[in-house]
Amino acid sequence: MAGEASIKAHVLGKIQDRSAVIGVIGLGYVGLPLAVEFAKAGFHVIGYDVSDRVCKLLMRGESHIQDVPASEVAALVKNGLFEATTDENRLSEPDAISIAVPTPLSKTRDPDMSYVISAAQTATRQAHPGLLVVLESTTYPGTTREVLLPALTERGLTVGEDVFVAFSPERVDPGNPVYHTKNTPKVVGGITQACTELATALYDSCIDITVPVSSPEAAELVKLLENTFRSVNIAMVNEMAIVCDKLGVDVWEVIDAAATKPFGFMKFTPGPGIGGHCIPLDPHYLAWKMRTLNYKTRFIDLASEINSQMPAYVVEKVAHALNAERKAVNGSNILVLGVAYKRDIDDVRESPALDVIRLLEGSGANVSFHDPYIPTIREDGHVHEGVDLTAKLLASMDAVVVVTDHKKVDYQMVMDNASLIVDSRNVTNGLVKTKARVVTLAASTRAAAEVMV
Ligand SMILES: NC(=O)c1ccc[n+]([C@@H]2O[C@H](COP(=O)([O-])OP(=O)(O)OC[C@H]3O[C@@H](n4cnc5c(N)ncnc54)[C@H](O)[C@@H]3O)[C@@H](O)[C@H]2O)c1
Q1: Strands 44-48, 399-402: parallel, antiparallel or unpaired by DSSP?
Q2: Tens of pLDDT along 437-453?
Q3: Which of 16, 31, 328, 425 could disulfide-pair with 405, CB 3.0 to 4.6 Å?
Q4: CB neighbours (10 Å) of residue 374?
Q5: What is the pTM of this model?
Q6: What is the pLDDT of residues 337-367, one digit of tens each?
């Protein structure tokens, strides 16, 4: 007991006086901003990634993550607070390790735990008494206890006494101008009380607010609740767009008016579907876990079904709009405007734009794309090069499909030069009606005077 207290007190002391070395496994959208926050708080941070390219780039003082300025990485590398390595032996040095590796789905939409298992094995090989390990990757409830804990304790270390294990979901929202890693409250749940206390102390050192919960399972479920909440609400409002379209009502007018209610309503907006590494995937981790317990998560399944049909709904709008001009999708020149999964970021993972492009090409359209953040997209071995957004290009298109509402794009210029815009994000609302005929996801009062399709 005295030993337990002294190991914990020793680690706590090192966290408090910043002499603790921190390891971060996985230096992507989540791991790099976190590593930078730890380093900015004064810790020596060793970032470990299997990608030689990523480590070399970071050590040159560059950044592959849009929200992390290269100047910050360069300064931290220069003053010795941050280093990136592919040498797993360097992970014998940290007093605390955060794991932020991918948690994708397999082709059958089951959790692919291979990255987490591999990272847990890496941490285990380097584990020593006094080590705190925190899993940050989004995953199903039970992962920390069932996957990470057995790995770490298999060599005789006792949890809560000489090794400390917790889960803390990452909530980073890429491209968010207000909320970053530091000012987004961090939920922490340890296997034992001592684990929660140490993990809380670790994140208190660099995150404004830490929210301890009673177990890793509670912390794991917090993240899944948040992302399921978004998936379900986006699906609900997407269905409302279809409902409004059939009723001939402007869905955005309805939403904006509903949002004036000061309580009991939260605004979500319809769109071409969902993307990114979180909302389309995370709820399936929970659905999978519940299937193993013989329970069907109906909200998750329905939301996924509606959201994943939205790209086809957009393409249907394009087909109807072209049809009204006596044109077929087959052979038409169509520009997809914006391919990132959401506004003002450079991430195409799971982007609905990829489905829109695939469906249009499948119907014989000549599809090109423009995205101010994404010069090329790679899909199934094919490389698509983006095109410049010029008046001449727009005039040569049979249709322009707005999939992502990047603020950088001059939509008035698009209105002035394109002949037909299918606007899945309502970016054309309020613009001066010039040349383009605009078709939105749902009937719109501003378009009511124009030809409706
Ligand atoms: N991207 C987001 O917006 C976001 C937000 C919240 C939570 N998350 C979750 O965080 C986790 C990480 O996501 P991400 O977006 O940062 O992924 P990412 O793909 O951007 O980065 C993961 C990094 O881990 C590295 N890696 C893979 N296997 C490794 C291993 N065994 N050892 C060391 N490095 C390894 C990869 O090379 C890559 O650099 C996921 O579980 C994700 O669901 C992501």
Answers
A1: unpaired
A2: 999 988 764 444 443 43
A3: 425
A4: 21
A5: 0.92
A6: 999 999 999 999 999 999 999 999 999 999 9
Joined tokens for residue 348: 């195409």
Annotated catalytic residue 195:
no
Question: 59 falls in which pLDDT band (50, 70, 90)?
Answer: very high
Please check the confidence at residue 2 and state whether its pLDDT lies above 80: no
Q: What are phi and psi of 10, to 5 degrees?
A: -65, -50
User: How many angstroms separate the CA atoms of 271 and 251, rounded?
Assistant: 11
Residue to mutate, 170, 284, 346, ligand 1, most ligand atoms under 8 Å from C-beta: 170
- In this predicted structure, what is the pLDDT of residue 55? 98
Q: Say which DSSP state 326 is in.
A: T
- Show the ligand 1 pocket: residues with CB < 6 angstroms: 25-31, 48-51, 54, 100-103, 115, 118-119, 122, 137-138, 170-172, 174, 276-278
Exposure string of 110-133, with b = 16+ CB inside 10 Å and e = fewer, is ebbbebbeebbebbbebbeebbbb
Residue among 24, 97, 101, 147 to mutate when testing ligand 1 (max atoms within 8 A of CB): 101
- DSSP H or E run through 174: none
Structure tokens belonging to residue 101: 């590796």
Angle at 282 between CA 278 and CA 287, to 5 degrees: 160
Q: Is 3 helix (H, G, I), strand (E, B) or coil?
A: helix
Question: Is the per-residue pLDDT at 1 higher than 50?
Answer: no
How many Cα atoms within 13 Å fall on the side-chain side of residue 311? 20
Q: What is the mean pLDDT of residues 176-193?
A: 95
